[in-house]
Amino acid sequence: MEKIGVGLIGTGYMGKCHALAWNAVSGVFGGELKPELVTLAEVNEELAAARAKDFGFAKSTGNWRDMLADPDIHIISITTPNEFHPEMAIAALEAGKHVYCEKPMAPSFEDAQKMLEASRKSGKKTFLGYNYIQNPMMRRIRDLLNSGEIGDVLQIRLEMDEDFMANPDDEWGIKSGAASGFGALDDFGVHTMSLLMALDLRIAKVMCHMTKPYATRKDASGNDKTVETYDAATVLFELENGGNGTLQLNRSAWGRKGRIAVQIFGSKGSIVYDQERMNEMHVYKAEGDVAGQGYTTILAGPAHEPYDRFIPAPGHGLGFNDLKIIEVNEILKSLQGQESHLIDFERGIFIEGLVQSMAKSHEQSGWVTV
Which residues contact 329 (CB under 8 A, 6 or more apart)? Predict the structure, then answer.
């Protein structure tokens, strides 16, 4: 069995997700290409050594650049805060490594473009961490749209809400600083944009308004510090096919934990999905006896690939980390020249452009063509 050497930068929430996925992918999917966990990098040697032991990496380092010259490392996972993505991704590509980077590409469009240019020059493959598109339910929605079963898409309503920024008493942190990006738009709103891309639905025009629920937060010394990012945003958009839609984002939505609500209204029916109930979807088809029409609830099961690789029975449910395992398997397929279902830098730059267009619309208080 051929092996591919993996390097990991960062061991926070997403770093652990990547490590779990690299560890589990062969057991779940098998295949001819097996990951070998080579080196883990953290901010200091002590933390790196401890996490390498926990996550199963053979080596550790307090300097991520140590990975660049290591011939045993073929792909580097980047799971650091957004502002560090460009430097790390570009350096890895220039060193001849494939790159698996968490979303978004970068806080600035200029840096995202530099990442894309570096990928083109290197000839190496790039992958972005948009694991929600790997959900078997989302794949089923795509199939329903492509088959024409709900007709032409007329309107889409998207919502993404969490409450990790809802408490006004929480201390000013990295997500409140401009270095991290615009805020809700690119911190997590890009996930909704990735879903549209995966469903072959393309936005043509946008009108956006962003807000700061809390203008200031206390710093570590107890002093008021200006919040530089926007924790909520509302977007009107027009699709290339003439349909329209809305996108509502809120990082300060008390009670919402991981909500991505998708409603798609077509000429022959509609589809409803909510990420907080990620193993089900609801489909309405305007056909047959009107008295018997209604939404049908579909539970994820072995008929919805690749659910069957995890569980042999329907209704038991997959989780967030399982989607990451599916994503890593798609990466391995891509590296072997097989067809895969991923967003790379070439496709990801369109999402970055969407964010910029939305921010521009907010600044100009008007419609912007993407």
Answer: 25, 28, 29, 31, 306
Average pLDDT on 8-31 reads 97
When pLDDT is averaged across residues 60-70 and rounded to a whole number, the result is 98
Taking residues 205-230, report their average pLDDT. 97
pLDDT tens per residue across span 241-263:
999 999 999 999 999 999 999 99
The amino acid occupying position 166 is A
Backbone angles phi, psi at 9, to 5 degrees: -110, 115
- Return d(Cα 198, Cα 323) in angstroms, integer: 15
β-pair type (2-9, 224-226): unpaired
Residue count of the chain, please give it. 370
Question: What burial letters (b/e) apply to 126-159, b meaning 16+ CB within 10 Å?
Answer: bbbbbbbbbbbbbbbbbebbeeeebeebbebebb
Q: For residue 357, count CB atoms less than 10 angstroms from its CB and return exposed for 0-12, middle for 13-18, buried for 19 or more.
A: buried
Tokens of 92: 């890895």
Q: 275: which 2 tokens?
A: 């990420």
DSSP string covering 225-256, please? EE--SBSEEEEEEEETTS-EEEEEEES--TT-
Tokens of 262: 């998708």
Question: Do residues 42 and 59 touch, judged by C-beta distance below 8 A?
Answer: no
